[in-house]
C-alpha cells in the first residue's frame, strides 16, 4: 500500500481495528494527565511546566505506599489525591504565587524552576533506577476478540471518563467551580464581585495537582517509576490540550483518545519509533488550521 509515495505494509482490517482499540486505552491515559494541565491553563492562562514533575512525584508516592505499607495503587488514590491537592495548593500560595508577583510570564518561569528542583530532588533521594509496582492482576483482563485488554487499561479508561464527568459537574454545579469559571473569564471583574482571586488560583492549581495524582495511581500498575517519567506523558499531554482546546475538559478527553488511536495506528504502519511522528504532525496541523482546538477555550 502506498501513501504519499511511501510504501506501507498491508494489514487485515481486524489488525487495524485491534490497534485502534489499543489506542483508545492508551489515549485514556494521556487524557488523565492532560485534565489537570488544561484546568490550570484555563484559570492561570499559563503552561504548567511542573506538571510532569508533579506526576512523577505522585507516582513515587504511590510506589512507596505499595512497597512500604502494601496499599494497592487504586486504594492509594484515597491518600495521594487529597495529598496532591494540599501540595498543589501550598505550592501555588507559598512559591509560585509569591515568586510571580502577579505576572503571568514569571509564573511560567516559576513552574519551570519547580520542575527542575523536583526532578533533581528525585534523582538525589531515589536515584535514577526504575521501580515497579507489581500487582497480582497485572496481566489479567478480557479478550475483546481483536485485542486482549488488561484490567489496568480498563481502569485507566474508566478513571478518565469518571474524572472528566466529575470535573465538569464540579465546575458547573458548585460555588467554587463557578468562582473558578468567573476568574478564568474575567479576573478583575471576579475580584470586584468579592471573589478571592489568589485563593481561587491556588484551588485551581491544587485541583490540577489532584488530577495528576489520580493519574499516577492509575498509571502505577502499568508504568515504571523513575525521575524522568513525567516527560513521557506531559509532552504528549501538551499536544492533547492544544488539540482538544485549552481549558476544555471534554476536549482533553476527546483529544487524548484521538492522539492515542493515531499513535497506535502510526506505530502499526511506521514502526515503534516513526509512529510517534504522527503526534507531531497532528500538533502542527492543529496550530495551522484550528489554533483554538476542537472545543475552543472554555471551562
Automatic annotation (TrEMBL):
GO terms for molecular function: transmembrane transporter activity. GO terms for cellular component: plasma membrane. It comes from the Bacteria. Keywords: Amino-acid transport, Cell membrane, Membrane, Transmembrane, Transmembrane helix, Transport. Its main location: membrane. It is a multi-pass membrane protein. It is found in: Cell membrane. The chain crosses the membrane at residues 20-42, 49-68, 74-91, 106-128, 148-171, 200-226, 232-261, 268-289. GO terms for biological process: amino acid transport. Belongs to the binding-protein-dependent transport system permease family. LivHM subfamily. PANTHER family: AMINO ACID ABC TRANSPORTER PERMEASE PROTEIN, BRANCHED-CHAIN AMINO ACID TRANSPORT SYSTEM PERMEASE PROTEIN LIVH. This is Branched-chain amino acid ABC transporter permease. It comes from Nisaea acidiphila.
Amino acid at each position: 500500500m502506498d501513501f504519499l509515495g511511501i510504501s506501507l505494509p498491508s494489514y487485515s482490517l481486524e489488525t487495524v481495528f485491534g490497534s485502534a482499540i489499543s489506542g483508545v486505552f492508551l489515549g485514556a491515559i494521556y487524557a488523565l494527565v492532560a485534565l489537570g494541565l488544561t484546568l490550570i491553563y484555563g484559570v492561570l492562562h499559563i503552561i504548567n511546566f511542573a506538571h510532569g514533575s508533579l506526576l512523577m512525584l505522585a507516582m513515587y508516592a504511590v510506589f512507596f505506599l505499595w512497597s512500604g505499607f502494601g496499599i494497592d495503587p487504586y486504594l492509594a488514590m484515597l491518600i495521594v489525591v487529597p495529598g496532591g491537592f494540599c501540595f498543589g495548593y501550598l505550592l501555588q500560595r507559598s512559591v509560585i504565587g509569591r515568586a510571580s508577583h502577579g505576572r503571568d510570564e514569571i509564573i511560567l518561569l516559576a513552574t519551570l524552576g519547580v520542575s527542575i528542583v523536583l526532578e533533581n530532588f528525585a534523582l538525589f533521594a531515589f536515584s535514577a533506577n526504575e521501580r515497579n509496582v507489581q500487582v497480582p492482576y497485572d496481566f489479567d483482563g478480557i479478550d475483546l476478540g481483536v485485542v486482549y485488554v488488561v484490567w489496568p487499561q480498563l481502569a485507566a479508561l474508566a478513571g478518565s471518563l469518571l474524572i472528566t464527568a466529575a470535573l465538569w459537574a464540579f465546575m458547573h454545579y458548585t460555588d467554587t467551580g463557578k468562582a473558578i469559571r468567573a476568574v478564568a473569564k474575567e479576573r478583575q471583574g471576579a475580584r470586584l464581585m468579592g471573589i478571592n482571586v489568589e485563593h481561587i488560583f491556588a484551588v485551581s492549581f491544587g485541583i490540577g495537582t489532584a488530577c495528576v495524582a489520580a493519574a499516577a495511581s492509575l498509571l502505577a500498575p502499568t508504568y515504571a517509576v523513575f525521575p524522568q517519567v513525567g516527560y513521557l506523558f506531559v509532552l504528549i499531554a501538551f499536544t492533547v490540550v492544544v488539540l482538544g482546546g485549552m481549558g476544555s475538559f471534554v476536549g482533553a478527553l476527546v483529544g487524548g483518545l484521538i492522539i492515542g488511536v493515531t499513535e497506535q495506528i502510526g506505530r502499526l504502519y511506521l514502526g515503534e519509533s516513526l509512529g510517534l511522528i504522527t503526534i507531531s504532525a497532528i500538533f502542527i496541523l492543529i496550530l495551522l488550521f484550528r489554533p483554538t482546538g476542537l472545543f475552543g477555550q472554555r471551562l
